[in-house]
Structure formats: structure tokens, C-alpha cells
Design a protein that fits this description.
The protein is of the alpha+beta class. Helices cover about 55% and strands about 10% of the residues. It has 14 helices and nine strands. Strands 4-5-3-6 form a four-stranded antiparallel sheet, with helices on both faces. Strands 7-8-9 form a three-stranded antiparallel sheet. Strands 1-2 form a two-stranded antiparallel ribbon. Helix 2 crosses helix 5. The radius of gyration is 23 Å and the shape is globular. About 30% of the residues are buried.
């Protein structure tokens, strides 16, 4: 196996730090903290380079806040200077691990994402159902054969074990100074249990989430030989013609997670579902011939638009509308989008 040593020099180079800055400031150039950093840019970069090289870099405490989109999440925001460091780390190690990730993991990867995962879902549902073969006594053409194991890892980000993560990283990275920097970033977090958890919101956490569960990906693909598997962060789906086979998969996966990764499946959110019942995945309820946004998705959109209306934030309203339309257009939502636009036109005329 190819390993990588002597990486710190590349990570600390001004070329890499400038690239990290460019990525960190994208879409945020008018923010006060970006302008403050850039007011003394060369000195800031040189100081950061020195601290990283001498291993004296210490991240600032994270800012904690709560969002509801629609479920409640605790998000942690790093100061801008630390975000530059996170990008610098990912610039260096992401290409190393990208080569070993399986094809069918879709979160936080270039040319992947939600819409690509949904297209893959459509392909797999056709394969498993033999192009929409109906069940016995089907009432409509969406009642097709096949099952899905829809699973979720329980409290995933809170339970990532730092030692296991670092052990996985060591399979490719042997530069102990870079690994110590990663450990410093991981420990800058209000952990419920010492040595466990990653802050939701950090770029590094998003990347490490894929690294940590790459062990699960290999187990599912190589040990279980599951053909039709899709993972998006800690949500994953396996398609199969046999319900009994998926029952076995679920048991084996839960054992693997407990023994190897100190995780477990969420007992309420991990279920085996007939394809003809419709499957909730990435904000949509997906049937064989169509997909619609989930009710919670619609409620969250309405709540955001109502807030903008009350606060008269027209520019923000248009930005939310544009983003939501870009998302739901991948479902069967033509009539829904027309209805929303019609209602907005009525509201604007009042």
C-alpha cells in the first residue's frame, strides 16, 4: 500500500495556504472577518505558516449555535483563520483518500452530491425491480417488487472515535506532525466523552466522516458483496430482491459497526421497506415512477419564506427560493413550483 510521509512542508507552504484562503473566502468576501484577515494578509499567512511548521498552532474555541432544517442540529463555527487551516489540511489529504473511496458514497465529494445520489437510486431501483415488475395484486404501477434497507448510524458525529479515525488515516499518512495537527483540530470540540465526537459544521469533520465510514463501505461491498449500495454521510441504502437477505445484512452491519467502529445503527430509523411503499431518502419520498419532497422539507421551506416576509428581506427570500427550486426540480414538482410562484405573486401584489 502506498503511504505518504513528509507532508507538513506542502501543507504549510504559502501556495497551499493561499489556495486554502481562496476556498475559505468563497461567497464570503463581504464578511467583516474575511476583510479583517485580508487587511494584513501577508503577515497573517506568514504567521500561520510559522505556527503550523513549529507545531505551535492552536485553534480558537468554536462558536455554538442551533439550527432547525427541519430537525434540530447543533452547529459549531470556527473562526475564519481556523477555516483556512481546515482547507489547507483537506487540500493535502483529500486527494490521497479520494482514490480509495468507493464510487457510491456521495456526500462532500466533487461531482457527487444529492442529485447524483438520487440518479443512482433511480438506476438501482430499476435493477432490483427488473424494470418495474409489479408485485402480485398490484393496485398501481408504482407497486413493484424489491426491498430497501434504509439505515442511519445513531448519533454519528457525537460517536466518532478519534483513535480509530487516526488509525484509519495512518494507513495512508505516516507524517506524525500532520497527524498531530489533525488530532489538535479534532480535540478542539466540547466532547461529551473524551476522545469521541466531531463538530458538525467543520470542513474537516465532513471529510473525516467519509474516511471513518469508508471501513463500512468496504465491508458492505467486499464482505457482504452487496451490489446496490448508496451512502450519504451516515445515511445509507441497500437494495435487494430478498427481504430475508436484507435482514441478515442489517444484523451483520450492526455487529461490524459495534466491533470495528464503536458505532451502532439507529434502532428506529433503520428499517427494511418494500420499494412499493415509497422510500424517504435525501429529502424526497421516492416511488418507482415519481419522487416528491417530504412534508418536513416543505414545512421548512415555508417557515423560511414566512420569516423573510415578516422581516421584509426580499433578497434573502429570492436566494432561498432559488436554492429550493434548484433542489426540488430533481423530483416531480412542476405543479408544486408553479403553485409556489403563483402564491408569491399574490403576496407581492398585496
Amino acid at each position: 500500500m502506498i503511504t505518504y510521509d513528509n507532508l507538513l512542508g506542502k501543507l504549510c507552504s504559502l501556495e497551499n495556504l493561499r489556495l486554502a484562503l481562496k476556498k475559505a473566502r468563497k461567497g464570503k468576501t463581504k464578511k467583516w472577518y474575511v476583510q479583517e484577515f485580508e487587511a494584513n494578509l501577508e503577515n497573517e499567512l506568514i504567521k500561520l505558516k510559522f505556527e503550523l511548521e513549529t507545531q505551535t498552532y492552536k485553534p480558537k474555541p468554536l462558536k455554538k449555535f442551533v439550527i432547525r432544517d427541519p430537525k434540530t442540529r447543533v452547529i459549531y463555527a470556527s473562526v475564519f483563520r481556523d477555516r483556512v487551516v481546515h482547507h489547507a489540511v483537506c487540500n493535502l489529504i483529500e486527494p490521497i483518500f479520494e482514490k480509495i473511496f468507493i464510487h457510491d458514497t456521495y456526500a462532500n465529494r466533487k461531482e457527487k452530491g444529492v442529485h447524483t445520489a438520487l440518479k443512482r437510486f433511480d438506476k438501482f431501483k430499476r435493477k432490483v425491480s427488473q424494470n418495474g415488475k409489479p408485485v402480485n395484486s398490484a393496485r398501481d404501477n408504482n407497486m413493484v417488487v424489491g426491498y430497501v434497507l434504509k439505515a442511519d448510524v445513531k448519533h454519528y458525529f457525537d460517536n466518532v472515535d478519534h483513535e480509530i479515525l487516526l488509525k484509519t488515516l495512518r494507513k495512508k499518512i505516516t507524517d506524525e506532525k500532520v497527524l498531530q495537527l489533525i488530532k489538535t483540530i479534532l480535540e478542539n470540540h466540547d466532547m461529551k466523552v473524551s476522545g469521541k465526537g466531531m463538530p458538525l459544521g467543520n470542513l474537516t469533520s465532513q471529510f473525516f466522516a467519509n474516511v471513518y465510514l469508508s471501513e463500512l463501505d468496504y465491508f458492505v461491498k467486499h464482505n457482504l458483496k452487496a451490489k446496490y449500495y448508496i451512502r450519504y454521510v451516515d445515511d445509507f441504502i441497500i437494495f435487494h430482491r430478498s427481504r430475508q437477505e436484507l435482514v441478515l445484512y442489517k444484523w451483520l452491519i450492526n455487529n461490524f459497526l459495534k466491533q470495528r467502529l464503536k458505532l451502532e445503527l439507529h434502532p428506529e430509523k433503520s428499517k427494511i421497506i418494500p420499494l412499493h411503499n415509497g422510500v424517504n431518502f435525501l429529502g424526497f419520498r421516492i416511488f418507482y415512477h415519481y419522487k416528491l419532497p417530504r412534508e418536513s422539507n416543505l414545512r421548512n421551506f415555508e417557515r423560511k419564506m414566512n420569516f423573510c416576509e415578516l422581516s421584509a428581506e426580499r433578497e434573502r427570500e429570492l436566494k432561498i427560493l432559488d436554492g429550493w427550486f434548484g433542489y426540488v426540480m430533481y423530483g416531480n414538482t412542476y405543479k408544486l413550483r408553479r403553485k409556489v410562484l403563483h402564491q408569491l405573486a399574490i403576496n407581492s401584489s398585496l
